[in-house]
Amino acid sequence: xxxxxxxxxxxxxxxxxxxxxxxxxxxxxxxxxxxxxxxxxxxxxxxxxxxxxxxxxxxxxxxxxxxxxxxxxxxxxxxxxxxxxxxxxxxxxxxxxxxxxxxxxxxxxxxxxxxxxxxxxxxxxxxxxxxxxxxxxxxxxxxxxxxxxxxxxxxxxxxxxxxxxxxxxxxxxxxxxxxxxxxxxxxxxxxxxxxxxxxxxxxxxxxxxxxxxxxxxxxxxxxxxxxxxxxxxxxxxxxxxxxxxxxxxxxxxxxxxxxxxxxxxxxxxxxxxxxxxxxxxxxxxxxxxxxxxxxxxxxxxxxxxxxxxxxxxxxxxxxxxxxxxxxxxxxxxxxxxxxxxxxxxxxxxxxxxxxxxxxxxxxxxxxxxxxxxxxxxxxxxxxxxxxxxxxxxxxxxxxxxxxxxxxxxxxxxxxxxxxxxxxxxxxxxxxxxxxxxxxxxxxxxxxxxxxxxxxxxxx
Amino acid sequence: xxxxxxxxxxxxxxxxxxxxxxxxxxxxxxxxxxxxxxxxxxxxxxxxxxxxxxxxxxxxxxxxxxxxxxxxxxxxxxxxxxxxxxxxxxxxxxxxxxxxxxxxxxxxxxxxxxxxxxxxxxxxxxxxxxxxxxxxxxxxxxxxxxxxxxxxxxxxxxxxxxxxxxxxxxxxxxxxxxxxxxxxxxxxxxxxxxxxxxxxxxxxxxxxxxxxxxxxxxxxxxxxxxxxxxxxxxxxxxxxxxxxxxxxxxxxxxxxxxxxxxxxxxxxxxxxxxxxxxxxxxxxxxxxxxxxxxx
Lengths: 459, 295
Description:
The complex is a heterodimer.
Chain A (H helix, E strand, L loop, with lengths): L13 H4 L12 H8 L9 H5 L6 H10 L2 H11 L3 H7 L6 H4 L2 H4 L5 H14 L14 E5 L3 H12 L3 E5 L8 H4 L8 H14 L3 E3 L10 H6 L5 E4 L5 E2 L12 E3 H9 L17 E5 L3 H13 L2 E5 L11 H10 L2 E3 L2 E8 L5 E14 L5 E5 L5 E4 L2 E4 L3 E2 L2 H4 L26 E3 L2 H4 L4 H20 L1
Parallel strand pairs in A: 1-2, 1-4, 2-3, 4-16, 6-14, 7-8, 7-14, 8-9
Antiparallel strand pairs in A: 5-15, 10-11, 11-12, 11-13
Helix pairs in contact in A: 2-4, 2-9, 4-5, 5-9, 6-9, 10-19, 14-15, 15-16
Chain B lengths: L1 E10 L2 E7 L1 H6 L5 E5 L7 E4 L2 E3 L4 E7 L3 H6 L7 E2 L1 E6 L10 H5 L3 E6 L3 H13 L5 E6 L8 H7 L3 E5 L6 E2 L2 H10 L6 E5 L2 H13 L3 E5 L15 E4 L2 E4 H4 L2 E3 L5 H8 L3 H13 L15
Parallel strand pairs in B: 9-10, 9-13, 10-11, 11-12, 13-14
Antiparallel strand pairs in B: 1-2, 1-7, 2-6, 3-4, 3-8, 5-6, 14-17, 15-16
Helix pairs in contact in B: 6-7, 7-9
């Protein structure tokens, strides 16, 4: 074994997986996990922990994996994270824990994410659940949204003895974990549903089909239903469009719609009664993780898929692993290209997308070089489906119906580090506060808010 | 799970359910809608609220059986449950926020077509309960497809019924009734029209000529109903609006009906096939040579 390199992980062959919705990464075996764990240097001052938004005791759990005591490893992770099977799969470890790993200086970082995933999956298979011996303190907290921030906040509060109810607007629990991230990256039954079962096992109640701001307001929850505090983890669900001509043509979708149809409504499954448009040639506009998810979903449904992104490969916001997987599967990248118009046929169906070539100019406010149009370089890509994946913003349903809850210019709820908003007893975190970000940052915010709420209710 | 207290067929292929949904009943207003799923693997179906009872905690929905998803709903009887029932969604009708006294001075005309009669009902009823008498035109293809006549007559100022084939009430389209009423010297300050998109389009073309402010209720394709998917986007004036959160009611003179009707057709072929498969089971093999079967 070469200690400088990660123990390789098994993946489905790109040609095979491009035609199915099974998980791409197959995970480590016990032996592989223990071998990979032995690469950890168990640093006295572990930088990886600093890189983790929820501060998992990484060297501690890895040393248990090395010993083969996976149950102990699971309980160590669970002290800090309510969703290890999810995080082990979708966290951008390369810029967090693994990005700080000392092994990474001369060789490859320890596969912390894959080890976390291994431990969590092992716990599912062996019926090991988070341990709970807490006395209820009789105080009620409402958690709005059952996505990553809500689940982690609810889990932490339950462990502290609170009577927690999670409200979800959709019919299924999990938020972006069920409607956004596809099955092939994050299996719903095998992983997400089980993580939620674990949160339920902590005594957390779940109520679906409740739209806060419509079915009931935050003020009503606090005044009529006697909740002592509220956490808002409603995410960033509103899709953006470009505002170019033809965007309302039949066959143009937001990535949110395309992914919700496939993931939440299971349209990829022939038995589902929810329809989805399967293009012959699909163009996905955007370069983030959601764009990769939409592109790889369209590919699996049977379409030829092109990604159109206005900057260059170096600026792609998606995780390197996702871009790599997308390319392996045969998705074609049209970089430094920006759509200017969607062309429709006489019946209003998409028949192509007119794009213009871009070049990189001076850096803009984000520090990335600003893409500038190359005059006269317009060209048309023939296609019958266009998926717009330009980012999302928080839903104003809650902020517009809650007096005293202030938002900023980007419709994000204003909150402090501990989640406290401008309204007494109301906390917020995750994408609803930051705008679209990652699962783990949302979980970190959920944890911070749980601590904030605990402090507030302990006064 | 949401218990069904009553279920009945109002007319051929038009069904009504009264469903226990206390959170929705507690906060809904006329003009808003719900999304229901009949079964654990069912489609999310947006439906305008047709009546509500805050005390009993119930919502009434009226559904036309037009596809696989609605066809599956017909198996649900009193005592059964809807798997999911969420709302109220969308914004209430404008008049709910208006000053009652000024409403009383307004001449309001409702124009309902077919199934649109059902969502018009709670609006007329609300006005009636607040002392405002609104005139109502109800149009149906034929006498047998007319629904809620008795209920509507109890809350409407004057109720005008018309059938396309003249089998009941006046004869002709709802637009003809509007024209006739204006010819008789009637005048209105505001019109609310709910029905098939093509009907709302022609009502709007007429009321524009009559300089009559007109509100329409749009029911486009949608998935979540909370602003997440954007499937229900439509052009209103120069803006793109989401029917689920910005509507479902809009200024009818600004709505791009032609664009909306094109988008409405997006899944028609797939839905049609699924409906046939659900109704006919394995017997549908595309033998008609027209539809392509289950390809």
